[in-house]
Protein backbone atom coordinates (compact mmCIF):
# COMPACT_ATOMS: atom_id res chain seq x y z
CA UNK A 1 0.00 0.00 0.00
CA UNK A 2 1.25 3.51 -0.85
CA UNK A 3 2.71 5.41 2.11
CA UNK A 4 0.33 8.30 2.67
CA UNK A 5 -1.85 9.82 5.38
CA UNK A 6 -4.58 7.17 4.95
CA UNK A 7 -1.99 4.39 5.18
CA UNK A 8 -0.52 5.77 8.38
CA UNK A 9 -3.92 6.33 9.95
CA UNK A 10 -4.72 2.69 9.26
CA UNK A 11 -1.58 1.69 11.17
CA UNK A 12 -2.21 4.00 14.13
CA UNK A 13 -5.88 3.00 14.40
CA UNK A 14 -5.39 -0.76 14.09
CA UNK A 15 -7.30 -3.03 16.45
CA UNK A 16 -5.92 -2.82 19.97
CA UNK A 17 -5.41 -6.57 20.16
CA UNK A 18 -3.18 -6.63 17.07
CA UNK A 19 0.58 -6.75 17.38
CA UNK A 20 2.31 -4.64 14.74
CA UNK A 21 5.85 -4.32 13.37
CA UNK A 22 6.77 -1.18 11.43
CA UNK A 23 9.95 -0.82 9.36
CA UNK A 24 10.67 2.91 9.50
CA UNK A 25 13.76 4.43 7.92
CA UNK A 26 15.48 7.75 8.73
CA UNK A 27 13.25 10.82 8.62
CA UNK A 28 10.15 8.70 8.04
CA UNK A 29 8.10 10.28 10.81
CA UNK A 30 8.17 7.19 13.00
CA UNK A 31 7.97 9.19 16.24
CA UNK A 32 4.81 10.89 15.00
CA UNK A 33 3.32 7.51 14.09
CA UNK A 34 4.30 6.08 17.48
CA UNK A 35 2.64 9.00 19.23
CA UNK A 36 -0.53 8.64 17.11
CA UNK A 37 -0.72 4.95 18.03
CA UNK A 38 -0.16 5.80 21.69
CA UNK A 39 -2.93 8.41 21.60
CA UNK A 40 -5.29 5.93 19.95
CA UNK A 41 -4.64 3.32 22.65
CA UNK A 42 -5.14 5.86 25.44
CA UNK A 43 -8.48 6.95 24.01
CA UNK A 44 -9.84 3.54 23.01
CA UNK A 45 -8.69 0.97 25.58
CA UNK A 46 -11.54 -1.06 27.02
CA UNK A 47 -10.40 -0.62 30.61
CA UNK A 48 -9.36 2.87 31.67
CA UNK A 49 -7.02 1.29 34.23
CA UNK A 50 -5.10 -0.74 31.64
CA UNK A 51 -1.42 0.12 31.72
CA UNK A 52 0.42 1.35 28.63
CA UNK A 53 4.19 1.26 28.32
CA UNK A 54 6.00 3.25 25.65
CA UNK A 55 9.60 2.02 25.65
CA UNK A 56 12.23 4.37 24.24
CA UNK A 57 15.92 3.70 23.63
CA UNK A 58 17.10 6.93 25.28
CA UNK A 59 15.86 9.48 27.78
CA UNK A 60 16.11 12.07 25.01
CA UNK A 61 13.53 10.17 22.96
CA UNK A 62 11.35 9.85 26.05
CA UNK A 63 11.48 13.60 26.66
CA UNK A 64 10.61 14.34 23.04
CA UNK A 65 7.48 12.17 23.25
CA UNK A 66 6.43 13.75 26.54
CA UNK A 67 6.95 17.26 25.18
CA UNK A 68 5.01 16.56 21.99
CA UNK A 69 2.09 15.03 23.89
CA UNK A 70 2.11 18.03 26.22
CA UNK A 71 2.18 20.44 23.27
CA UNK A 72 -0.89 18.71 21.84
CA UNK A 73 -2.69 19.07 25.17
CA UNK A 74 -2.83 15.31 25.76
CA UNK A 75 -3.76 14.22 29.26
CA UNK A 76 -1.34 11.70 30.79
CA UNK A 77 -3.23 8.84 32.43
CA UNK A 78 -1.56 7.59 35.63
CA UNK A 79 -1.27 4.12 34.07
CA UNK A 80 1.01 5.42 31.31
CA UNK A 81 4.74 4.76 31.41
CA UNK A 82 7.15 6.45 29.00
CA UNK A 83 10.84 5.72 29.35
CA UNK A 84 13.69 3.29 28.77
CA UNK A 85 13.41 -0.47 29.19
CA UNK A 86 15.79 -0.28 32.14
CA UNK A 87 13.70 2.26 34.06
CA UNK A 88 10.52 0.34 33.16
CA UNK A 89 11.78 -2.99 34.49
CA UNK A 90 13.47 -1.38 37.48
CA UNK A 91 10.18 0.16 38.56
CA UNK A 92 7.84 -2.72 37.79
CA UNK A 93 9.96 -5.87 38.25
CA UNK A 94 13.24 -5.26 40.08
CA UNK A 95 12.02 -2.99 42.88
CA UNK A 96 8.97 -5.09 43.82
CA UNK A 97 10.25 -8.61 43.07
CA UNK A 98 14.07 -8.79 43.04
CA UNK A 99 14.07 -9.85 46.69
CA UNK A 100 13.02 -13.26 45.36
CA UNK A 101 16.50 -13.63 43.85
CA UNK A 102 18.40 -12.19 46.83
CA UNK A 103 19.88 -14.59 49.36
CA UNK A 104 18.86 -12.21 52.16
CA UNK A 105 15.44 -11.58 50.59
CA UNK A 106 16.15 -7.90 50.01
CA UNK A 107 15.51 -5.98 46.79
CA UNK A 108 18.61 -5.26 44.74
CA UNK A 109 19.76 -1.68 44.28
CA UNK A 110 20.79 -0.25 40.93
CA UNK A 111 24.45 0.75 40.79
CA UNK A 112 24.76 4.39 39.80
CA UNK A 113 26.94 5.62 36.97
CA UNK A 114 30.53 5.63 38.23
CA UNK A 115 30.09 2.63 40.53
CA UNK A 116 33.16 0.92 39.06
CA UNK A 117 35.31 3.99 39.73
CA UNK A 118 34.61 3.62 43.42
CA UNK A 119 35.80 0.01 43.39
CA UNK A 120 39.11 0.27 41.56
CA UNK A 121 40.81 -1.75 44.29
CA UNK A 122 38.58 -4.74 43.55
CA UNK A 123 38.98 -4.29 39.79
CA UNK A 124 42.74 -4.24 40.28
CA UNK A 125 42.54 -7.53 42.19
CA UNK A 126 40.45 -9.15 39.47
CA UNK A 127 42.78 -7.97 36.69
CA UNK A 128 45.96 -8.45 38.76
CA UNK A 129 46.95 -4.83 38.14
CA UNK A 130 47.98 -1.87 40.24
CA UNK A 131 45.13 0.56 40.92
CA UNK A 132 46.86 3.40 39.07
CA UNK A 133 46.67 1.32 35.89
CA UNK A 134 42.85 1.17 36.07
CA UNK A 135 41.84 3.92 33.64
CA UNK A 136 38.45 5.33 32.62
CA UNK A 137 38.16 2.97 29.64
CA UNK A 138 38.49 -0.08 31.89
CA UNK A 139 35.92 1.31 34.34
CA UNK A 140 33.46 1.89 31.49
CA UNK A 141 33.98 -1.68 30.31
CA UNK A 142 33.12 -3.01 33.77
CA UNK A 143 30.00 -0.83 33.85
CA UNK A 144 28.79 -2.05 30.45
CA UNK A 145 29.13 -5.82 30.95
CA UNK A 146 26.28 -7.64 29.29
CA UNK A 147 25.18 -11.26 29.04
CA UNK A 148 25.54 -13.70 26.18
CA UNK A 149 22.58 -15.77 25.07
CA UNK A 150 23.45 -18.44 27.65
CA UNK A 151 23.29 -15.87 30.42
CA UNK A 152 27.05 -15.76 30.99
CA UNK A 153 28.60 -12.35 31.79
CA UNK A 154 30.19 -11.01 28.65
CA UNK A 155 32.16 -7.94 27.63
CA UNK A 156 31.05 -6.80 24.19
CA UNK A 157 33.97 -4.37 24.16
CA UNK A 158 36.30 -7.41 24.27
CA UNK A 159 38.37 -5.94 27.10
CA UNK A 160 37.40 -8.22 30.00
CA UNK A 161 37.49 -12.03 30.13
CA UNK A 162 34.37 -14.03 30.92
CA UNK A 163 35.90 -15.25 34.20
CA UNK A 164 36.66 -11.73 35.40
CA UNK A 165 33.23 -10.51 34.24
CA UNK A 166 31.56 -13.28 36.23
CA UNK A 167 33.60 -12.48 39.33
CA UNK A 168 32.66 -8.80 39.06
CA UNK A 169 28.96 -9.60 38.75
CA UNK A 170 29.16 -11.81 41.83
CA UNK A 171 31.00 -9.08 43.74
CA UNK A 172 28.29 -6.56 42.90
CA UNK A 173 25.52 -8.97 43.75
CA UNK A 174 27.12 -9.83 47.12
CA UNK A 175 27.10 -6.11 47.90
CA UNK A 176 23.40 -5.88 47.01
CA UNK A 177 23.82 -4.15 43.62
CA UNK A 178 23.07 -4.91 40.02
CA UNK A 179 24.05 -2.90 36.95
CA UNK A 180 21.92 -1.64 34.05
CA UNK A 181 22.42 -4.79 31.98
CA UNK A 182 21.43 -7.08 34.84
CA UNK A 183 18.22 -5.14 35.30
CA UNK A 184 17.28 -6.85 32.03
CA UNK A 185 18.69 -10.27 32.83
CA UNK A 186 17.33 -10.50 36.39
CA UNK A 187 13.91 -9.32 35.20
CA UNK A 188 13.93 -12.11 32.65
CA UNK A 189 14.84 -14.70 35.30
CA UNK A 190 12.05 -13.52 37.60
CA UNK A 191 9.37 -13.39 34.90
CA UNK A 192 10.45 -16.70 33.44
CA UNK A 193 10.44 -18.49 36.80
CA UNK A 194 7.33 -17.06 38.43
CA UNK A 195 4.28 -17.60 36.26
CA UNK A 196 1.96 -15.59 38.52
CA UNK A 197 4.22 -12.52 38.33
CA UNK A 198 4.52 -12.87 34.57
CA UNK A 199 0.76 -13.19 34.16
CA UNK A 200 0.06 -10.22 36.45
CA UNK A 201 2.68 -8.11 34.66
CA UNK A 202 1.19 -8.86 31.24
CA UNK A 203 -2.33 -8.15 32.48
CA UNK A 204 -1.19 -4.89 33.98
CA UNK A 205 0.43 -3.81 30.70
CA UNK A 206 -1.72 -5.16 27.85
CA UNK A 207 -0.24 -2.52 25.50
CA UNK A 208 3.48 -2.01 24.97
CA UNK A 209 5.01 0.21 22.29
CA UNK A 210 8.73 -0.18 21.58
CA UNK A 211 10.79 2.36 19.63
CA UNK A 212 14.14 1.54 17.96
CA UNK A 213 13.42 -2.19 18.00
CA UNK A 214 16.59 -2.93 16.03
CA UNK A 215 18.49 -2.03 19.22
CA UNK A 216 16.67 -4.60 21.36
CA UNK A 217 18.97 -7.21 22.89
CA UNK A 218 18.43 -10.96 23.23
CA UNK A 219 17.10 -10.94 26.79
CA UNK A 220 14.93 -7.89 26.21
CA UNK A 221 13.29 -9.88 23.42
CA UNK A 222 12.97 -12.89 25.71
CA UNK A 223 11.09 -10.73 28.22
CA UNK A 224 8.72 -9.41 25.57
CA UNK A 225 8.05 -12.94 24.29
CA UNK A 226 6.94 -14.02 27.78
CA UNK A 227 4.10 -11.48 27.88
CA UNK A 228 1.44 -13.54 26.15
CA UNK A 229 -1.45 -11.23 27.04
CA UNK A 230 0.26 -8.10 25.72
CA UNK A 231 -0.08 -6.63 22.25
CA UNK A 232 2.99 -4.88 20.86
CA UNK A 233 3.66 -1.98 18.53
CA UNK A 234 7.28 -2.29 17.39
CA UNK A 235 9.04 0.34 15.30
CA UNK A 236 12.54 -0.23 13.96
CA UNK A 237 14.94 -0.17 11.04
CA UNK A 238 17.32 -3.02 10.19
CA UNK A 239 19.60 -0.53 8.49
CA UNK A 240 20.23 1.44 11.68
CA UNK A 241 21.34 -1.46 13.86
CA UNK A 242 24.76 -0.21 15.03
CA UNK A 243 24.91 -1.12 18.72
CA UNK A 244 26.39 -4.63 18.67
CA UNK A 245 28.66 -3.62 21.56
CA UNK A 246 25.54 -3.62 23.78
CA UNK A 247 24.47 -7.04 22.54
CA UNK A 248 21.90 -5.72 20.07
CA UNK A 249 21.46 -7.66 16.83
CA UNK A 250 19.46 -6.80 13.69
CA UNK A 251 18.27 -10.43 13.67
CA UNK A 252 16.01 -9.66 16.66
CA UNK A 253 13.90 -7.20 14.68
CA UNK A 254 14.17 -9.44 11.62
CA UNK A 255 12.60 -12.29 13.60
CA UNK A 256 9.83 -9.98 14.79
CA UNK A 257 9.28 -8.92 11.17
CA UNK A 258 8.99 -12.56 10.09
CA UNK A 259 6.61 -13.47 12.93
CA UNK A 260 3.26 -14.46 11.39
CA UNK A 261 1.41 -13.13 14.43
CA UNK A 262 2.45 -9.57 13.57
CA UNK A 263 0.96 -7.25 10.99
CA UNK A 264 3.78 -5.64 9.02
CA UNK A 265 4.07 -2.17 7.51
CA UNK A 266 6.91 -0.25 5.82
CA UNK A 267 7.17 3.53 5.79
CA UNK A 268 8.80 4.70 2.56
CA UNK A 269 8.46 8.47 2.84
CA UNK A 270 11.38 10.58 4.01
CA UNK A 271 10.32 13.97 5.36
CA UNK A 272 13.80 15.02 6.45
CA UNK A 273 16.33 15.10 3.64
CA UNK A 274 16.77 16.32 0.09
CA UNK A 275 16.04 13.88 -2.72
CA UNK A 276 19.77 13.66 -3.49
CA UNK A 277 20.62 12.70 0.10
CA UNK A 278 17.78 10.17 0.20
CA UNK A 279 18.81 8.54 -3.08
CA UNK A 280 22.46 8.50 -1.99
CA UNK A 281 21.46 6.60 1.18
CA UNK A 282 19.14 4.33 -0.83
CA UNK A 283 22.17 2.94 -2.67
CA UNK A 284 23.01 1.04 0.51
CA UNK A 285 19.66 -0.57 1.27
CA UNK A 286 16.88 -2.63 -0.29
CA UNK A 287 14.24 -0.39 1.28
CA UNK A 288 13.80 2.54 -1.09
CA UNK A 289 12.70 5.85 0.40
CA UNK A 290 11.47 8.93 -1.40
CA UNK A 291 12.17 12.49 -0.31
CA UNK A 292 8.79 14.19 -0.09
CA UNK A 293 9.36 16.77 2.64
CA UNK A 294 9.96 20.49 2.27
CA UNK A 295 13.60 19.75 1.34
CA UNK A 296 12.74 17.11 -1.25
CA UNK A 297 12.98 19.41 -4.29
CA UNK A 298 16.39 20.86 -3.42
CA UNK A 299 18.97 20.72 -6.21
CA UNK A 300 21.87 20.50 -3.74
CA UNK A 301 23.82 17.30 -4.36
CA UNK A 302 25.84 15.41 -1.77
CA UNK A 303 29.30 17.02 -1.59
CA UNK A 304 32.52 14.99 -1.51
CA UNK A 305 35.43 17.17 -0.38
CA UNK A 306 38.56 16.60 -2.49
CA UNK A 307 42.11 17.96 -2.52
CA UNK A 308 41.89 18.81 1.17
CA UNK A 309 44.51 17.01 3.23
CA UNK A 310 43.76 18.02 6.80
CA UNK A 311 40.64 17.75 9.00
CA UNK A 312 40.89 21.44 9.87
CA UNK A 313 40.76 22.49 6.23
CA UNK A 314 37.83 20.13 5.60
CA UNK A 315 35.89 21.69 8.46
CA UNK A 316 36.73 25.17 7.19
CA UNK A 317 35.40 24.34 3.74
CA UNK A 318 32.29 22.75 5.25
CA UNK A 319 31.49 25.94 7.14
CA UNK A 320 32.02 27.92 3.94
CA UNK A 321 29.60 25.68 2.04
CA UNK A 322 26.90 25.70 4.69
CA UNK A 323 26.70 29.52 4.61
CA UNK A 324 24.42 29.15 1.60
CA UNK A 325 22.06 26.83 3.50
CA UNK A 326 19.02 28.46 5.05
CA UNK A 327 18.66 27.28 8.64
CA UNK A 328 15.23 26.90 10.15
CA UNK A 329 15.05 27.90 13.81
CA UNK A 330 13.73 24.57 15.09
CA UNK A 331 16.63 22.54 13.69
CA UNK A 332 20.24 22.16 14.69
CA UNK A 333 22.35 24.18 12.22
CA UNK A 334 25.11 21.61 11.77
CA UNK A 335 26.84 18.48 13.02
CA UNK A 336 30.33 17.11 12.38
CA UNK A 337 30.36 13.32 12.71
CA UNK A 338 33.20 10.84 13.10
CA UNK A 339 33.60 7.25 14.24
CA UNK A 340 35.98 7.22 17.21
CA UNK A 341 35.76 9.31 20.39
CA UNK A 342 39.52 9.94 20.38
CA UNK A 343 39.30 11.38 16.89
CA UNK A 344 36.40 13.59 17.95
CA UNK A 345 38.35 14.86 20.95
CA UNK A 346 41.25 15.71 18.64
CA UNK A 347 38.88 17.63 16.35
CA UNK A 348 37.48 19.58 19.29
CA UNK A 349 40.96 20.46 20.49
CA UNK A 350 41.83 21.57 16.98
CA UNK A 351 38.82 23.84 16.62
CA UNK A 352 38.48 25.12 20.16
CA UNK A 353 38.22 28.89 20.27
CA UNK A 354 39.50 31.11 23.03
CA UNK A 355 37.20 31.09 26.00
CA UNK A 356 35.43 34.32 26.84
CA UNK A 357 35.20 35.17 30.50
CA UNK A 358 31.79 34.91 32.08
CA UNK A 359 29.84 37.94 33.24
CA UNK A 360 31.16 39.05 36.63
CA UNK A 361 27.73 38.63 38.19
CA UNK A 362 28.03 34.86 37.95
CA UNK A 363 31.65 34.87 39.11
CA UNK A 364 30.74 36.82 42.25
CA UNK A 365 27.66 34.69 42.92
CA UNK A 366 29.82 31.59 42.75
CA UNK A 367 31.99 32.99 45.53
CA UNK A 368 29.09 34.23 47.67
CA UNK A 369 26.58 31.38 47.35
CA UNK A 370 27.63 28.31 45.39
CA UNK A 371 24.23 26.61 45.52
CA UNK A 372 22.42 29.61 44.03
CA UNK A 373 25.16 29.85 41.43
CA UNK A 374 24.57 26.23 40.34
CA UNK A 375 20.81 26.75 40.20
CA UNK A 376 21.12 29.93 38.15
CA UNK A 377 23.87 28.78 35.80
CA UNK A 378 22.16 25.49 34.94
CA UNK A 379 18.80 27.19 34.48
CA UNK A 380 20.36 29.70 32.09
CA UNK A 381 22.10 26.93 30.17
CA UNK A 382 18.81 25.02 29.95
CA UNK A 383 17.17 28.08 28.38
CA UNK A 384 20.10 28.53 26.01
CA UNK A 385 20.17 24.91 24.85
CA UNK A 386 16.39 24.84 24.42
CA UNK A 387 16.50 27.93 22.20
CA UNK A 388 19.25 26.33 20.13
CA UNK A 389 17.13 23.16 19.74
CA UNK A 390 19.58 21.09 21.83
CA UNK A 391 16.69 19.56 23.75
CA UNK A 392 18.58 16.67 25.36
CA UNK A 393 21.21 19.04 26.73
CA UNK A 394 18.53 21.47 27.86
CA UNK A 395 16.75 18.78 29.90
CA UNK A 396 20.07 17.61 31.38
CA UNK A 397 20.82 21.14 32.60
CA UNK A 398 17.26 21.48 33.92
CA UNK A 399 17.74 18.24 35.86
CA UNK A 400 20.94 19.58 37.40
CA UNK A 401 19.28 22.89 38.31
CA UNK A 402 16.40 21.01 39.96
CA UNK A 403 18.78 18.75 41.88
CA UNK A 404 20.52 21.75 43.45
CA UNK A 405 17.22 23.57 43.92
CA UNK A 406 15.45 20.76 45.80
CA UNK A 407 18.33 18.81 47.36
CA UNK A 408 21.55 20.86 47.09
CA UNK A 409 23.17 17.84 45.44
CA UNK A 410 24.13 16.67 41.95
CA UNK A 411 21.52 14.50 40.13
CA UNK A 412 23.17 11.18 41.05
CA UNK A 413 22.92 11.91 44.78
CA UNK A 414 19.28 12.77 45.31
CA UNK A 415 16.35 10.81 46.73
CA UNK A 416 13.03 11.59 45.05
CA UNK A 417 11.21 9.73 47.83
CA UNK A 418 12.00 12.71 50.06
CA UNK A 419 9.54 14.82 48.08
CA UNK A 420 7.08 12.03 47.22
CA UNK A 421 8.04 11.99 43.54
CA UNK A 422 8.94 9.17 41.17
CA UNK A 423 11.32 9.50 38.23
CA UNK A 424 8.53 10.10 35.70
CA UNK A 425 6.96 12.90 37.78
CA UNK A 426 10.38 14.47 38.32
CA UNK A 427 11.24 14.51 34.63
CA UNK A 428 7.78 15.72 33.60
CA UNK A 429 8.01 18.72 35.96
CA UNK A 430 11.43 19.57 34.53
CA UNK A 431 10.11 19.56 30.97
CA UNK A 432 7.11 21.70 31.87
CA UNK A 433 9.38 24.17 33.64
CA UNK A 434 11.73 24.23 30.65
CA UNK A 435 8.81 25.09 28.38
CA UNK A 436 7.79 27.89 30.75
CA UNK A 437 11.31 29.30 30.85
CA UNK A 438 11.45 29.25 27.06
CA UNK A 439 8.45 31.60 27.00
CA UNK A 440 10.16 34.30 29.09
CA UNK A 441 11.21 37.57 27.47
CA UNK A 442 14.91 37.46 28.29
CA UNK A 443 15.49 41.15 27.62
CA UNK A 444 12.86 42.08 30.21
CA UNK A 445 13.51 39.49 32.93
CA UNK A 446 16.10 40.13 35.64
CA UNK A 447 17.92 37.49 37.68
CA UNK A 448 15.85 38.35 40.75
CA UNK A 449 12.64 38.07 38.72
CA UNK A 450 13.73 34.65 37.44
CA UNK A 451 14.02 33.10 40.89
CA UNK A 452 10.59 34.38 41.96
CA UNK A 453 8.94 33.30 38.71
CA UNK A 454 10.44 29.81 38.92
CA UNK A 455 9.32 29.39 42.52
CA UNK A 456 5.75 30.37 41.71
CA UNK A 457 5.57 28.21 38.58
CA UNK A 458 7.11 25.09 40.11
CA UNK A 459 4.98 25.34 43.26
CA UNK A 460 1.76 25.72 41.28
CA UNK A 461 2.63 22.95 38.84
CA UNK A 462 3.45 20.48 41.60
CA UNK A 463 0.08 21.15 43.23
CA UNK A 464 -1.82 21.06 39.93
CA UNK A 465 -0.16 17.97 38.48
CA UNK A 466 0.43 15.85 41.56
CA UNK A 467 -1.35 17.49 44.48
CA UNK A 468 1.98 17.91 46.28
CA UNK A 469 3.04 21.07 48.12
CA UNK A 470 6.78 21.55 47.74
CA UNK A 471 7.21 25.19 48.72
CA UNK A 472 9.39 24.30 51.71
CA UNK A 473 11.80 22.43 49.43
CA UNK A 474 12.49 25.44 47.24
CA UNK A 475 12.75 28.28 49.76
CA UNK A 476 16.25 28.92 48.44
CA UNK A 477 14.50 30.84 45.64
CA UNK A 478 13.66 33.48 48.24
CA UNK A 479 17.38 34.30 48.24
CA UNK A 480 18.04 37.95 49.22
CA UNK A 481 21.06 38.40 46.92
CA UNK A 482 23.35 39.56 49.70
CA UNK A 483 26.09 41.69 48.18
CA UNK A 484 24.36 41.64 44.77
CA UNK A 485 20.88 43.00 45.47
CA UNK A 486 21.01 45.87 43.01
CA UNK A 487 22.84 43.82 40.40
CA UNK A 488 20.27 41.01 40.65
CA UNK A 489 17.53 43.51 39.77
CA UNK A 490 19.38 45.13 36.86
CA UNK A 491 21.19 42.14 35.32
CA UNK A 492 18.99 40.73 32.58
CA UNK A 493 18.87 37.08 31.54
CA UNK A 494 19.74 38.05 27.97
CA UNK A 495 23.06 39.49 29.15
CA UNK A 496 24.07 36.38 31.08
CA UNK A 497 22.98 33.96 28.38
CA UNK A 498 24.96 35.85 25.77
CA UNK A 499 28.07 35.44 27.90
CA UNK A 500 27.36 31.77 28.56
CA UNK A 501 26.95 31.15 24.85
CA UNK A 502 30.47 32.33 24.27
CA UNK A 503 31.81 30.34 27.19
CA UNK A 504 30.14 27.13 26.10
CA UNK A 505 31.43 27.70 22.57
CA UNK A 506 28.03 26.77 21.23
CA UNK A 507 28.54 28.90 18.13
CA UNK A 508 31.65 26.91 17.21
CA UNK A 509 32.28 23.23 16.65
CA UNK A 510 32.42 22.01 20.24
CA UNK A 511 29.08 20.48 21.12
CA UNK A 512 28.34 19.88 17.45
CA UNK A 513 31.14 17.37 16.88
CA UNK A 514 29.71 13.96 17.74
CA UNK A 515 30.34 10.28 17.33
CA UNK A 516 28.07 8.67 14.77
CA UNK A 517 26.60 6.46 17.48
CA UNK A 518 25.66 9.42 19.70
CA UNK A 519 24.18 11.27 16.69
CA UNK A 520 21.70 8.47 16.02
CA UNK A 521 18.19 9.85 16.40
CA UNK A 522 19.37 13.41 15.74
CA UNK A 523 19.34 15.57 12.62
CA UNK A 524 20.86 18.85 11.43
CA UNK A 525 20.49 21.20 8.50
CA UNK A 526 24.10 20.51 7.42
CA UNK A 527 26.26 17.50 8.26
CA UNK A 528 29.94 16.79 7.66
CA UNK A 529 30.88 13.11 7.89
CA UNK A 530 34.61 12.63 8.45
CA UNK A 531 36.42 9.36 7.82
CA UNK A 532 39.89 8.78 9.24
CA UNK A 533 40.90 6.99 6.04
CA UNK A 534 39.50 6.28 2.61
CA UNK A 535 39.30 2.59 3.56
CA UNK A 536 36.94 3.52 6.39
CA UNK A 537 34.82 5.57 3.99
CA UNK A 538 34.65 2.62 1.60
CA UNK A 539 33.29 0.46 4.42
CA UNK A 540 30.63 3.07 5.18
CA UNK A 541 29.58 3.11 1.53
CA UNK A 542 29.05 -0.67 1.48
CA UNK A 543 25.66 -2.41 1.53
CA UNK A 544 23.99 -2.38 4.94
CA UNK A 545 23.35 -6.12 5.15
CA UNK A 546 27.03 -6.92 4.78
CA UNK A 547 28.48 -5.24 7.88
CA UNK A 548 27.74 -3.04 10.83
CA UNK A 549 30.30 -0.52 9.60
CA UNK A 550 28.19 -0.08 6.46
CA UNK A 551 25.15 0.58 8.64
CA UNK A 552 27.17 3.12 10.64
CA UNK A 553 27.75 4.98 7.38
CA UNK A 554 24.02 4.83 6.64
CA UNK A 555 23.19 6.38 10.01
CA UNK A 556 25.78 9.12 9.49
CA UNK A 557 24.67 10.05 5.96
CA UNK A 558 20.98 10.12 6.87
CA UNK A 559 21.35 12.75 9.64
CA UNK A 560 21.52 15.60 7.10
CA UNK A 561 18.47 17.62 6.06
CA UNK A 562 19.79 19.99 3.38
CA UNK A 563 23.55 19.59 2.99
CA UNK A 564 25.62 16.43 3.35
CA UNK A 565 29.40 16.72 3.02
CA UNK A 566 31.76 13.75 3.12
CA UNK A 567 35.53 13.89 3.65
CA UNK A 568 38.34 11.39 3.88
CA UNK A 569 42.06 11.94 3.28
CA UNK A 570 43.17 11.60 -0.35
CA UNK A 571 39.72 11.14 -1.92
CA UNK A 572 40.10 10.39 -5.65
CA UNK A 573 37.10 11.27 -7.80
CA UNK A 574 37.67 8.38 -10.17
CA UNK A 575 36.88 5.93 -7.36
CA UNK A 576 33.32 7.27 -7.07
CA UNK A 577 32.08 7.32 -10.67
CA UNK A 578 29.16 5.09 -9.64
CA UNK A 579 27.83 7.94 -7.47
CA UNK A 580 27.77 10.54 -10.23
CA UNK A 581 23.99 10.97 -10.17
CA UNK A 582 24.03 12.07 -6.54
CA UNK A 583 27.47 13.55 -5.83
CA UNK A 584 29.47 16.66 -6.71
CA UNK A 585 33.07 17.41 -5.75
CA UNK A 586 34.36 20.57 -4.10
CA UNK A 587 37.87 21.61 -3.14
CA UNK A 588 39.35 24.47 -1.17
CA UNK A 589 40.34 26.36 -4.33
CA UNK A 590 37.01 25.92 -6.11
CA UNK A 591 34.20 28.40 -6.09
CA UNK A 592 32.08 26.70 -8.74
CA UNK A 593 30.56 23.24 -8.65
CA UNK A 594 32.52 20.49 -10.37
CA UNK A 595 30.35 17.66 -11.57
CA UNK A 596 31.89 14.22 -11.31
CA UNK A 597 31.44 13.63 -15.05
CA UNK A 598 33.86 16.47 -15.84
CA UNK A 599 36.85 14.24 -15.12
CA UNK A 600 35.92 11.68 -17.79
UniProtKB/TrEMBL annotation:
Question: What one GO molecular function would you report for this record?
Answer: 3'-5' DNA helicase activity
Q: Which domain of life is it from?
A: Bacteria
Q: What class of enzyme is it?
A: isomerase
What is this protein's name?
DNA 3'-5' helicase
InterPro entries from the entry?
DExx_box_DNA_helicase_dom_sf (IPR013986), DNA_helicase_UvrD-like_C (IPR014017), DNA_helicase_UvrD/REP (IPR000212), P-loop_NTPase (IPR027417), UvrD-like_ATP-bd (IPR014016)
Keywords, comma-separated and alphabetical? ATP-binding, Helicase, Hydrolase, Isomerase, Nucleotide-binding
- Reaction equations catalysed: ATP + H2O = ADP + phosphate + H(+); Couples ATP hydrolysis with the unwinding of duplex DNA by translocating in the 3'-5' direction
The entry sums up its family as follows: Belongs to the helicase family. UvrD subfamily.
Organism of this sequence: Lysinibacillus pakistanensis
Q: Name one GO biological process term.
A: recombinational repair
Amino acid sequence: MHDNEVFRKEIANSMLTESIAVQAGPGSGKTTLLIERLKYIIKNRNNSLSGIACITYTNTAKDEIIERLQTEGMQFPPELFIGTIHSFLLEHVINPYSYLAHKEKKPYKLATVGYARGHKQKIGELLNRQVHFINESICKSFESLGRDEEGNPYCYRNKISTEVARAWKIYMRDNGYIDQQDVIYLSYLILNKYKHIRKAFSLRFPYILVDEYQDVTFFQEQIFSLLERTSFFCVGDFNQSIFSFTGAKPEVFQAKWNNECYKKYTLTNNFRSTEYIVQFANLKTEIVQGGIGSNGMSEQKVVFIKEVGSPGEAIELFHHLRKSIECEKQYKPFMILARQNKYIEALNDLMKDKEVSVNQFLNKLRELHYRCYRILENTLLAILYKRRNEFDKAVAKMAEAFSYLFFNNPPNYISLADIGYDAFMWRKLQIFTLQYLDSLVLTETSVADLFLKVKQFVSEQSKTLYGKAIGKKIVILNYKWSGQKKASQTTLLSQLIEQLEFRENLSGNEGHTLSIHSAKGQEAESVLVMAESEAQLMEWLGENEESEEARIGYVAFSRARKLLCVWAPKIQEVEYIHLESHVEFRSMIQTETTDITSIL
